[in-house]
Fold this sequence. Notes:
- The protein has 341 residues and is mostly beta strands.
- The chain is built from no helices and 26 strands.
- The chain has strands spanning 4-6, 34-43, 48-57, 60-68, 78-84, 91-96, 102-110, 116-125, 131-140, 150-153, 157-158, 162-164, 167-174, 179-186, 190-196, 204-212, 215-222, 226-231, 241-245, 251-258, 261-269, 279-287, 292-298, 306-313, 316-326, 329-339.
- The protein is globular.
- Mean pLDDT is 90; it is low at 1-22.
Amino acid sequence: MNWFISSSLILLILVGCKKDSYDFGEIENNFTQVTIMTQEKVFDNFLHCAFTDLIHYNGNYFLAFRKGSDHGASRDGTVVILKSGDLKSWDKINEYRYLSHDLRDPKFFVDNSGHLLFSCVGFLYAKSDYLLDRSFLVFDLNSEGNGPLIKQNVGFWPWKIEKNNNSYYTIGYSTSKNIINLYEFSFMPSFRTLCNFNPLGTSLTEAVIKFYDNHAYIVVRSKENLYIGIIEDLNDLCKINWKSFPIEDFGGPNFVKYKNTLLIAGRENIGKGNNAAYNRTVLLKYDIVSNELSRAAVLDSQGDTGYPGMLLNRDTLTMSYYSTTGEDKAAIYLSKVKINF
Length: 341
């Protein structure tokens, strides 16, 4: 069933892939604003593959994700990079490790020299489960070696690096310290705090900032709401007009701007009672002018899912994401969506 919410001010050749399908249950998708053209599994090694990102670079597509024995308890995560020229045939070009760290949430960006990089966070634990090291890591896909270009111990979780002109920005959070900040990032490396979003609440986590048409937009996940921020003056990134929508724990939010809308993707629980069986990777449409949010599509997915990469080419949106395929198992999927408005 489609829905919308008005806000309050304070919103094929497969790599390692088994071709049989997984039963995601009933997926209701009688939406008209977009058309789901394809949904395909592109990687499944019968472990837990998750937390994706997607980029088009120098005529090829690159897909990154974490591969581990499970969602996180095993703490053995590596980052896998796939490459494709046509979004159909994918080749694994590298798998990145760093010492005994659990690597999580790889995100692509391009530096001022034109190099394709990805960032992630690496966690190192003692046998007693005590956290020994949490490091922000940056790897250069153009480098011959597999070691990180940058390693910096951090007391927070930097999310996705975004570039505007020649400057880099990210939003980082710490649930233990109850902070979420907008940072300017430099390759020294350093993170300069610009402002915090703490007045929004106490359960803010994953967040993305992106720059379009001399504006900036922010989407923030929290336990209670989905927050959407609009920055109209790029000379004052801390002057943010916030909107809030009652969507709980929207997992791994990402978005692109299309016309006067933000297309926002992530994990949403579309059932009642917060049962994980009703978790889906969804696409939301936020109308910047009318300040209305609606669900535009639900992708084949269930349970442990979401964390999409997104690429927009005219009126076609390509999304990578992951979804449960069994107990403690997940695979990587790719979907093409035609925008009809």
